[in-house]
Amino acid sequence: MASGMSAREEILAKVRAAVAGAPTVEIPRGYRTRRQVDDLVGLFAERVGDYRAIVRVVPSAELGATIDACVHGRRMVVPDGFGRDGGWDDLDTADGVMTHCAVAIAETGTIVLDHGPGQGTRAQTLVPDYHLCVVLADQIVPGVPEAVERLDPSRPLTWISGPSATSDIELNRVEGVHGPRTLEVLIST
């Protein structure tokens, strides 16, 4: 190793020397940045359901009563900014968490949390066995490019596509290993 250089600096110096004088190559970036979807709510609900999540489309006037029915008898973590009182503080004994989201993606059925108001911390959204997420219809975008436009890359982002699941070496599906076993999504229209 050269005197005073870290291993990282030495490797980067070798890479720079190897590519010195190479011609600049234009890389076309013809990514699709807009997609037209006629029924964002319907497509999102379908795709979230494909991931084995429980999905309900609820008129906004019925949202409060539906949330009450979903969490009845459960000890729920309610993050600051969710708009409800009575949250459970102990993650070790909580049955679930209820959150809002930053954005939802119709094409992939993905919910994105940026852990802003009402979205909780990563621990709050990954430790409990049940996650109830309220998605407002105007938070649903057609695809990933539109979602990325709405997100702040400096915030911690958690992308959720269905309940936590993994497969062992014999392809047996196991749910709830790395996060909530049950994801319930209420889409408020």
TrEMBL record:
It comes from the Bacteria. Residues 90-187 form the LUD domain. InterPro entries: FTHF_cligase-like_sf, LUD_dom, NagB/RpiA_transferase-like. SUPFAM superfamilies: NagB/RpiA/CoA transferase-like. It holds the Pfam family LUD_dom. This is L-lactate dehydrogenase complex protein LldG. It comes from Nonomuraea maritima.
